[in-house]
Amino acid sequence: MTDTKKKKGLSSFNIDNNWKVVIDPDNVFWGIILSKSISAPLLPGEVASLYKKVKTKLNKEMKDFRFGSNLSAVYVNPTDRCNANCSYCYIPPAIRKNGNQMNKEQLNLVMEKIDNHFKNSSKRPVVVFHASEPLLVKDIIFEAMDKFKKQFYFGLQTNALLLEETDVGFLKNHRVGVGISLDSLDPDINDRQRPYKKGNGNFAKAVEAIEWFNGYEGLNVITTITKHNVMQLPDLVEFLHTKKVGCVLLNPVRVTQKTALKLKPDQKVLTKYFINAVEKAMELSKNSRHIITIANFANIILGIIAPTGRRLMCDISPCGGGRCFLCITAKGDMIPCGEFISLNGFSGGNIFDTTIAHAMRSEPFKKIRSRIIENISECKVCDFRNICGSPCPAELYSLGNMNQPSVFCKFYEEIIKYAFKLIAEDKVKYLFRKKSLEHFEYAYKLK
Q1: pLDDT tens string 103-159
Q2: Residues 354-391: pLDDT tens digits?
Q3: Reduced DSSP (H G I as helix, E B as strand, rest coil) percent helix, strand, coil of the chain, to 5
Q4: Which of 21, 213, 250, 290 has the fewest CB atoms within 10 Å, measured from its CB?
């Protein structure tokens, strides 16, 4: 597009030869219409009347969601170190090898400061133990989970190399949300991307751990998509389905580190196999008793049908970093998101010296919250600006300019069009767990 002036009001685009979408990009009001029936005005009378009635309210809801959402989660990195050497890691090798590590007293202080920050909150916050590999300090993490189990919901992201079967029982009993990293159903490809320092990779341990969890609803598998595993995505979904995994995130590689740029998949290839993976997940969910969902695609669907109900806050502008969540590093620095660990100038202060409230008011956090689609010439005229959000600011900052479109812009565009197609074909019911669907209700419905 050559016109860089932000468009207001309704716009339209074709999904395919059968369907057309009319949308207000500012508030994500939309209607799907048979292509042959579309004519001036853009919307049929009853839909146009509904749009006129709810437009102001939807504008306010979107504005509140984008700029008024409060902090609800804290990522705690109790160690910078890792027992693996993943080819695309956003944490530099020197930090992963020789970085800081919290002791029991330091982690306890961090937890108490988080608890103090949320003492007047009406909702229980989430604390996710993340990092390079948090299970390197497993004992103090588990002790913290037990001590603060009434104050927080907990999450844990791990490569599973240090996970033991007895740990699974503890995590289940404490209802911890667990993410296990697995990139391929092919051990060679997985272990090439996620090598273990001692020679192999995490494939065998990750699969063993997944089997230990045995269909646990709090388990998800996180796959980083590169040019090496992109064509395996549908087969990986089928493999995980046989292992009773209910949720998988298929995340295109972040290129915050230059080494990851070499692993970036072609966007056309990525789009093709990502869609094939969604199709495979729907087929398996439709034809078996076990549902498997692709969480980051489900979040895009939510961005369309329930924009303020989405949970993954990368796909909105400003993103969730320094707004809905923050990250505390092993040495105590508070940064908007873990992706900023290798980037200078983004610390909002040190948790051991100051408070979370101070970090939220800091200039580095304000800088990330000021990164919005309205400041990106290509994005501000895009119909999908409040569905995509043009992630990721850390990634784009590392490439020289935070205010530019996502490196996967074309991929997001095609995936969002595909999402509208599935909505038009009434296939949303195959994209979510049944318990999730039970929470859906119509805010507006034409009789």
Answers
A1: 999 999 999 999 999 999 989 999 999 989 999 999 999 999 999 999 999 999 999
A2: 999 999 999 999 999 999 999 999 999 999 999 999 99
A3: 45, 15, 45
A4: 290
Q: Are strands 73-76 and 325-328 parallel, antiparallel or unpaired?
A: parallel
From 308, 317, 321, 313, select the one nearest 385 (Cα to Cα): 317
Q: Which two tokens stand for residue 270?
A: 């990525």
Rounded distance, CA 103 to CA 388, Å?
39
Matching residue, tokens 């969890």: 213
DSSP per-residue string spanning 394-414: HHHHHTT-SSS--TTHHHHHH
The encoded tokens of residue 187 equal 């051990």
- Give the strands of the sheet with 126-129, arranged side by side: 293-294, 247-252, 219-225, 177-181, 153-158, 126-129, 73-76, 325-328, 334-335
Nearest C-alpha neighbor of 376 from the set 398, 400, 406: 406
Alpha-helix runs per DSSP H in 155-266: 165-173, 187-193, 203-213, 233-242, 258-261
> Among 304, 294, 278, 268, which residue's Cα sits nearest to residue 414?
268
